[in-house]
Amino acid sequence: MIKQIRSEQLKPGMYIHDLNCGWLDHPFVSSTFKVRDEATVNKIIELGIRELYIDTVKGADVWEARTQSEVNAELEQRMQEIAAKKSERPVVVELREETARARRLHGEANKIVRNLMEDVRLGQKIEVDRLAPLVESTVESIFRNQDALLPLARLKNHDDYTFEHSVSVCALLVAFGRAMKLGKEDIRELAMGGLLHDVGKACIPDDILNKPGKLDDAEFAKMQSHVVQGVVLLQQSGGISKIALQVVGEHHERFDSTGYPRHLGSEKISLYGQMAAIVDVYDAISSERVYHKGMPPPQALKKLLEWSNHHFDPQLVKTFIRAIGVYPTGTLVQLESKRLGVVVEQNEGNLLEPVVRIFYHAGQKHYIPPETVDISKVQDSIASFENYEKWNIDPYHWLPA
User: Is 258 left (phi over 0), alpha (psi -120 to 50) or beta?
Assistant: First the structure.
């Protein structure tokens, strides 16, 4: 049986089923292993992991601990409550009108950030002003219709993850800032910070950045140093706003002071740093890596909600979920009718009933004529979210063209 326990309940002899944290937040080769000694227990506690899951069939038990099913049921109830509150995201243009523009913008953004990272590796200063048009285009696209750009931001190439992740965080922060009703100038600076939040990784050797195995303590510390490296690079380059710098410097800080590099607590982390931390983790855990399987977006959102018990501001997490939807655009879902489709648009009135482009029958295991369905207007509903890889489906092919 899989159970959730507090890290201080962990003992040698227990079998960890899931460390319950982001891949970059621990140096272990896997999130699943047998605890052999007290040193491992102490290391897990020192990492700031508050709760984790154990397998009581493979190791010792904590009889009073909640089962994973009980935890999931509670999270599902909390997600339902979040979805029940209407989301305010006015659409300025129709999806089909914004889609082609968003695709061009996404391709351009990836190239610009790739070149930026290469320039930094060569020792060149960051010219923040040259990124301003890209940031402005991203803000305007999200404000016109965020369902065009956000699903594209989820699509990443394994080899290009670092800069594609930065583009994704930038776009998500714009949607988040809009939901927070921030002023447009603040949203622009927030987006700039998102675009540059991992620029310090240009100073990290590739053999550490892309290492498929366990990082030793020195490598783990080097990886974490990308935050300070990024701040230093931007301060040396000049032209960076306070908001953007807070995003870069605080996106790995945590509400309960367990983050890095400064172990700031809830009262010392800026609003923008807290927002960036939520977005950064969401995009990281929902993205495919060579050594890390990405979660479907709804599952990643549930993890954020679970971790908001300690690591994130619960109200900010709820706002972020409402900003992108319980089934974020681009999510593969299965309906009660056994048909599969990709979420292409959100319904402001009901986040549980988005617009879905249907194209496959899971029961009969074959493609069907594509059909766009507004779930709020038919006698069907979403039964589950799915993994593209499981069904061997190319997400890019089925998103609006």
Answer: alpha
Please state, in angstroms and rounded to a whole number, the distance separating the CA atoms of residues 292 and 210: 11
Break the chain down into helix, strand, coil percent, rounded to 5.
50, 15, 35
- Rounded to an integer, what distance in angstroms lies between the CA atom of residue 2 and that of residue 254? 26
Instruction: Judge contact between 372 and 345, C-beta under 8 A.
Output: no
Q: What is the distance between the alpha carbons of residues 157 and 113, in angstroms, rounded to a whole number?
A: 14
Q: Rounded to an integer, what distance in angstroms lies between the CA atom of residue 212 and that of residue 289?
A: 9
Q: Under a CB-based contact definition with an 8 Å cutoff, are residues 331 and 352 in contact?
A: no
Tokens for 358, please give them. Answer: 């249907």
Given a contact cutoff of 8 angstroms between Cβ atoms, the answer to whether 22 and 284 are in contact is yes
pLDDT computed for residue 131 by the predictor: 95
* Residue 159: predicted pLDDT: 61
In the chain, domain spans = 2-64, 95-324, 332-398
- Dump the DSSP string for 255-301: TBS-SSSS--BTTTS-HHHHHHHHHHHHHHHTS-BTTBPPPPHHHHH
How many CA atoms are closer than 13 Å to the CA of 320, on its beta-carbon side? 31
133: preceding bond cis by omega (within 30 degrees): no
pTM exceeds cut of 0.85: yes
User: CB 7: neighbour CB atoms within 10 A?
Assistant: 18
What is the band of 282 on the pLDDT scale with cuts at 50, 70, 90? very high
Written out in words, the top-level CATH class of the domain with range 95-324 is: mainly alpha
Show the DSSP H helices in 122-239 as ranges.
Answer: 132-153, 161-179, 184-196, 206-209, 217-224, 226-237
Asked if residues 306 and 71 have their Cβ atoms less than 8 Å apart, the reply is yes
C-alpha span between 254 and 249 (Å, rounded): 12
Token pair, residue 307, equals 């971790």
Integer Cα distance of 111 and 318 in angstroms: 32
Distance in angstroms (rounded) separating the CA atoms of residues 174 and 194? 9
- Mean pLDDT for 103-130 is 92
Percentage of residues of the chain with pLDDT beyond 90: 78
Tokens 């030793």 correspond to 216
Residue 263 zone, left/alpha/beta (φ > 0; ψ -120 to 50; rest) = left
Does 232 have pLDDT greater than 80?
Answer: yes
